[in-house]
């Protein structure tokens, strides 16, 4: 449809940035997975080379029910889990860390592993459906475990009350509506190429209404479970440190890597749970890469039919596109601002008004075409 060609190009660009983000999350997951096999989990220690003098562990704080903590000034960047993410994984410039100014070799090795893993999984497309099912089942089992363990933490009830308390004043803030719309569209995969690419493989007579309803319900339950697990940890941190819920950790795309390890520390054999969680995280991110890469190859195959018809050309095109994504992803590693680049594309590629604007335009075009027909 020539009228919707611009919407197609916009979806293509959104997929490009989304895949960069997914590959980065997989890289972080591989680094955390590697360190999960250590006897002492490094993000739970405060005497490593990357820790600063202000690094604190949660067991250094007492019960803050009286809102009085003596001798310690808690800040969101002083938590040992946060410093592991900022100073070791991302190597954000910090003169107090011994890793300041060093090239991020662990991230480069992890990126190479992500590229090889992505190419192997994309090639094995026939078995991907089973991998997706297994990964999704483990994800929900793990989320239920996180919710149960998190709800037993001290201070979890306070944060859950804050989570489910409706604030009418926020309805006047445009950012609230933008975040809500983008979260809904992002969870449903609306605006991306994957749904369009997989849609043409649907069976004749398939009940799309039931599929759409099931997808919406599943997305809602998933977001709700992760929100409850996250807020339980935030409430626990606020309870034992005396800080406000909004100030206990640094917000952003690395939030899960700061909070989930805290829940793991309250489980038996935390190394085992960390291995399971980060392995599931890698599988889920890989599923997203596979889906969006399939949508991207569908666009290329429609534009150049030789890519679909010739197996050799298809393989070469897949490897070439994969190398481009690999180069684009590792490019920020040659500077000290890799984290800011990732946060920039994660905050402004989709999560916000660009995706909302794209879907509003798509719906208006579809309504116009339907009325004309």
CA-based shape: globular
Work out the number of β strands: 0
How far apart, in Å, are the first and last alpha carbons? 14 Å
- Mean pLDDT, as a whole number? 80
What's the order of the H and E elements? HHHHHHHHHHHHHH
Helix content: 55-70%
State the helix count.
14
Biggest sheet record: none
Radius of gyration: 22 Å
Percent of residues in beta strands? under 5%
Query: In oligomeric terms, what are we looking at?
Result: single chain
Helix- and strand-based class? mainly alpha
Low-confidence stretches: 64-71
Write the layout of secondary structure elements.
Layout: H1 5-35, H2 80-89, H3 105-123, H4 128-151, H5 156-163, H6 174-188, H7 193-199, H8 208-241, H9 255-264, H10 270-303, H11 305-309, H12 311-330, H13 338-348, H14 353-372
Helix pairs in contact: 1-3, 1-10, 1-12, 1-14, 3-10, 3-12, 4-8, 4-10, 5-8, 6-14, 7-10, 8-9
Structure, described:
The chain is 66% helix and 0% strand. It is built from 14 helices and no strands.
């Amino acid at each position: 449809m020539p009228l919707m060609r611009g919407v197609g190009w916009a979806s293509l660009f959104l997929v490009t940035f989304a895949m960069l983000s997914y590959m980065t999350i997989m890289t972080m997951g591989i680094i955390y997975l590697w360190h999960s096999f250590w006897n002492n989990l490094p993000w739970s220690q405060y005497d490593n080379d990357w820790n600063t003098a202000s690094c604190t562990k949660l067991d250094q704080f007492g019960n803050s029910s009286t809102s009085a903590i003596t001798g310690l000034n808690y800040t969101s960047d002083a938590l040992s889990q946060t410093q592991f993410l900022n100073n070791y994984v991302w190597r954000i410039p910090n003169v107090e860390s011994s890793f300041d100014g060093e090239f991020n070799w662990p991230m480069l090795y992890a990126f190479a592993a992500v590229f090889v893993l992505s190419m192997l999984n994309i090639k094995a497309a026939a078995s991907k459906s089973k991998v997706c099912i297994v990964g999704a089942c483990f994800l929900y089992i793990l989320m239920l475990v996180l919710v149960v363990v998190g709800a037993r933490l001290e201070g979890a009830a306070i944060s859950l009350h804050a989570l489910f308390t409706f604030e009418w004043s926020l309805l006047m803030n445009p950012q609230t509506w933008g975040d809500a719309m983008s979260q809904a569209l992002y969870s449903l995969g609306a605006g991306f190429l994957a749904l369009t690419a997989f849609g043409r493989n649907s069976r004749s007579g398939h009940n799309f209404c039931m599929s759409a309803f099931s997808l919406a319900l599943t997305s809602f339950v998933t977001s709700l479970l992760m929100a409850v697990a996250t807020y339980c940890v935030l409430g626990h941190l606020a309870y034992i440190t005396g800080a406000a819920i909004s100030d206990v950790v640094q917000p952003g795309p690395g939030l899960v890597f700061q909070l989930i390890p805290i829940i793991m520390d309250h489980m038996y054999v935390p190394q085992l749970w960390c291995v399971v969680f980060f392995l599931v995280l890698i599988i889920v991110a890989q599923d997203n890469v596979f889906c969006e890469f399939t949508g991207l190859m569908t666009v290329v195959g429609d534009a150049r039919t030789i890519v679909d018809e010739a197996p050799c050309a298809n393989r070469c095109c897949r490897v070439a596109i994969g190398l481009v994504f690999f180069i684009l992803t590792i490019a920020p590693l040659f500077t000290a601002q890799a984290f800011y680049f990732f946060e920039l594309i994660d905050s402004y590629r989709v999560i916000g008004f660009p995706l909302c604007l794209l879907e509003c335009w798509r719906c208006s075009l579809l309504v116009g075409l339907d009325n004309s027909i």
